[in-house]
Design goal:
The chain is mainly beta and 120 residues long. It has one domain: Elongation Factor Tu (Ef-tu), domain 3. It is built from 1 helix and 6 strands. A hairpin with a 2-residue loop joins strand 1 and strand 2. The longest helix has 6 residues. The termini are far apart.
């Protein structure tokens, strides 16, 4: 897998347990485009590789993640919640295994943190 460096440009709590993290490409680079439903792999220095849905509008230029802090997890969510603006991460290119096909209407179901791919 090819890894790209990203920098944290915004980090805030949407709820006491959900952090919203905006990632930007390092200077002189651009992130690949993505479509609704895409996710990326994130590698932090202190935790294992984890997958997170991209939940901002694709034309935004940054990647936005919403991360639920899971106290019983192996540490990925804690590492993401501990990030600060200016920290750097390694991320994969976006993948979309849940693309929307052309249709007159779409009905999306989501619950819990699974709402993030639908959030705009």
């Amino acid at each position: 897998m090819t890894w790209t460096e990203a920098v944290v440009v915004s980090h805030f709590l949407m709820t006491p347990d959900i952090a919203v993290i905006d990632l930007a490409p390092v200077e002189g680079t651009e992130f690949p485009a993505y479509t609704a439903g895409a996710h990326i792999d994130v590698r932090t220095d202190s935790g294992p590789v984890r997958q997170y849905s991209l939940c901002g509008p694709p034309e935004y230029g940054h990647y936005r993640l919403a991360v639920l802090n899971e106290p019983g997890s192996r540490g990925g969510s804690r590492a993401m919640h501990a990030l600060n603006v200016g920290d750097r991460l390694r991320i994969s290119a976006p993948r979309n295994r849940f693309p929307l096909v052309t249709a007159r209407r779409h009905l999306l179901f989501a619950g819990g943190i699974g709402i993030t791919p639908c959030w705009r």
